[in-house]
Amino acid sequence: MSINDFETDYESSMIKARVLRGTPELFFSGKTFGPFKDGDEIEIPRWLARELTKNRTVKILDEKPLEIPDLAKIHWRESIPESRELPPLDHDFYNKLRELLYELSKKKDQDPSQKALFEKALSQSKDIINCRLHKIVYLATNPSITDTTIRKMAVDERRLYNDLSPIINEWKNKILNLEDEE
Known about the structure:
- The chain is built from seven helices and five strands.
- α4 (93-110) packs antiparallel against α5.
- The strands form two sheets. A three-stranded antiparallel beta sheet has the order 4-1-5.
- The mean pLDDT is 87.
- Helix content is 55%, strand content 11%.
- The longest helix has 26 residues, at 115-140.
- The radius of gyration is 21 Å and the shape is globular.
- With 182 residues, the protein is mainly α.
- The protein has two domains: 7-60, Ribosomal Protein L9, domain 1; 68-176, Methane Monooxygenase Hydroxylase, Chain G, domain 1 (Up-down Bundle).
């Protein structure tokens, strides 16, 4: 499964929303949604909810986007020197991170005074990713990783860990296996 597959799964996942403005049936990709009445609480794909939010047709419920203070807190937690601990992240952290960076990028394009905010968020994002990558590679070399540790990883990170671990173990076994030399 590639990163694009994760993104497609995320965008296709169902999300709760409240209808602010009733609509007739909607047809997308061979699927029918609705009709929706004012006040209805519905479950629709994330991509559709996002589109309907733009014209104030629905309000997304129970979904907190990643915001600058959240990013700063995660950055601080991840960049503690010499910590090999993998602090837990929301399973959809990287999707929310991409959304935050996309929104900040749009704002900086519309208002140049927002450029510094975008640059800081991008820098913190890179630091978080680098710190977590180092920890995941370290964990992939450790044969005694626990399910608890794996549950702390975002979905994208689990995939990376599952891909790296056998490659690293195969490489180590090849190096340490002396039987083939006799």
